[in-house]
Amino acid sequence: MGMAASQARYIALTARKSNVEYEGQQINQARVSLANQSANLFNQMMGMEVPTPPSTTDFTTIQYSFSDGVNTEVLSNYYQLGNSDSDYNYVVTTYHNEKVYTGSKKKLNDPQVQATQTNHFTYSPTSTDDNTSMNVSKAWKNQDGTYGLEATDGSTTIFRPVTVKEEDQVRAINKGNGVYEDQAAAGDAPSTNGLFKNITIDGAGTFNADNVNSFKYDGSTFQKVTYNTAGTGMPDGTKDIIDSVIDGATNTDVYYVDENGRVITDDDLKTAETNYGVGGATNPEEPIAIREAKGESITGDPATENYFTDGKKFISRTDLDNAVAKYDKYVATGKKEPNEVNFITPKNDPTFSNYSAVGNCTLTELKAADLEDEDVWAELEQIMKDMKGPNGDKVAAENFAACFDTDENGDLVYKGGIYKFQMGGTTYYTTKNDLDASLGTSIVDNGIDVQQGKLNYYNASYLETKVEETQKALLETDGKGRFKTVKFEDDSVVYTLNTETVTDDAAYQDAMNRYYYENAEYEKMIADINAKTEILQAQDRTLELRMEQLATEQSALQNEMEAVKKVVDKHVELGFKTFGG
Question: What is the DSSP letter of 233?
């Protein structure tokens, strides 16, 4: 090897040795860091407190009790009077458990209350809840008379003419807009609600308002009803029907109601008799009630023909035609105008009657005679009392109160509205207001009717109750620090006290559960520390192995450097000899 090559090799070995030494320093620093982490984990483990299981003695106390011949009374608390005398020296609290007749309220989830629903739709043109709008990008009229609207988001809605079943909603819209509800077309029989045509008058062929069977419509008999606001003497549900169908009724109005809930006035019947004569008419238009059963759309009735619906919201024919005209103009001229249509959604505030069942449990309304049963009245009285109490329910108390009036003597007079049903062999009670509240939350979810509001229902039963009493007492000791007798201010008997050692098992079990939790938490933390320590140790062993490799490599480099240095020194020596003579 030449002089230059030896020198270059020596420099390379020196650089490599420096790198090995630097890497060794880095490894030493890493090992120091691992050692610090391991020490921190050890210190953390040493600072942990080992959970200690509870002792039953911590939950064991001395208890005093006595028997008064009826109940076993326990002294739960006592404290000495500041100014004691020979009669009383302590204030003592005693308790015993007994079954107390208690009224309670429960809630039934999705109760499936079954009843007759009478819709009552209202509409306010100024209500933001009733009115919405949509920006339309495309509008067209189909050959079948329906309209299509495409929103700017790409969704499409088809609007069809309203059907007779939706007529009450349209009439609510018209009423809210100040439009008379029945602008009968020429040639139609006049009527305040547009539902009665082609009336047949039986009997002698003359109008007789006193004969409840005088008037028939499509084979259905109308029953005469004199309206009054209290509904006195009316069949069940009739007042609700008249209230929802007829507007502006007074106490003197006379109506006829059929079994399908349709209402007509005696004046309309007179008008119909005058227009069509005895035995019916030759009106070419099929009666609306028949078309309703067929599900046909309304035609020829100005009260309803100008509205269309998608089954949820309504829109006027004028708005639809304007939307189509604007879109047609855009197609023809390319000039796009702002196109917004307005939707109308009447609100429904239905009334309910003829409650028949809660799920598969039959509902029965209590009559005044039912409350004469002492057991029934005692249970209802207890329910109402406890609903008014501190642990009761204000709304429930008001619902029961609505079922009663007060007479001139201040006594309660039942006026109806309390229902009973059997479930699991137990009789439960509920009120009309509770039933209405649950029915009012009905929705249709995937084709299934669901009542979101839980039904409140009630009963009274004997419940295990802790009865406490606090009074002054004279406690005497046995001379060894324990009480032996007690005499209360409201009792002349001196009772002998029994001394018992009692363990609070519930509190002890709670403490044991807490110990199990804390012990599991402690063991988990220990396991986590051990796992982290093992990882640190594994990393340290890896670094230690690398240090041994570096030490071996450094030793080899040192040996080679010494050999190269000898070669360089020999070359230098030979050079001096050659040139130095």
Answer: T
> Which phi and psi angles does 138 have, rounded to 5°?
-155, 140
Which sequence spans correspond to the domains of the chain? 3-54+509-580, 69-119+350-492, 121-347
Query: Is the CB of residue 358 less than 8 Å from the CB of residue 455?
Result: yes
The Cα 202–Cα 297 span in angstroms is 31
Between CA 238 and CA 250, with CA 244 as vertex, the angle to 5 degrees is 75
Other CB atoms within a 10 A radius of the CB of residue 488 amount to 19
Question: Which DSSP state fits 300?
Answer: S
Q: Kindly state the tokens that stand for 314.
A: 């309504």
- Angle CA 386–390–392, to nearest 5: 45
Averaging pLDDT over each range in 172-176, 353-357, 361-365, which range is the top one? 361-365
Q: At what angle do helices 394-401 and 432-439 cross, to 10 degrees?
A: 120
d(CA 61, CA 59): 7
| The amino acid at 148 | G
Q: How far apart are CA 371 and CA 325, in angstroms?
A: 68
Whether the pLDDT of residue 474 is over 80: the answer is yes
Token digits of residue 179? 């439009």
CA distance linking residue 385 with residue 390, whole number of Å = 10
C-alpha separations of 410 from 226, 403, 407, 413 in Å: 31, 15, 5, 9
Residue linked to tokens 């911590």: 58
Q: Check if the beta carbon of residue 215 is closer than 8 Å to that of residue 269.
A: yes
Q: How confident is the model at residue 186 (pLDDT cuts 50, 70, 90)?
A: very low
CA distances for 121 relative to 238, 276, 306, 345, 497, angstroms: 17, 32, 18, 10, 72
Q: Is the Cα torsion angle 22, 27, 29, 30 positive or negative in sign?
A: positive
- Cβ-contact 548, 39 below 8 angstroms: no
- pLDDT at 182 (0 to 100): 37
Average pLDDT, the chain: 79
Give the integer Cα–Cα distance in Å for 98 and 464. Answer: 6
β-pair type (351-358, 113-118): antiparallel
Please name which of 365, 352, 367, 430 lies closest in space to residue 111, comparing C-alpha atoms. 430
Q: Is the CA virtual torsion 548, 550, 553, 557 positive or negative?
A: negative
What's at 62, amino acid-wise?
I
Of 300, 323, 286, give the one whose Cα is nearest residue 167.
300
DSSP state, residue 297: B
Residues in the chain: 581
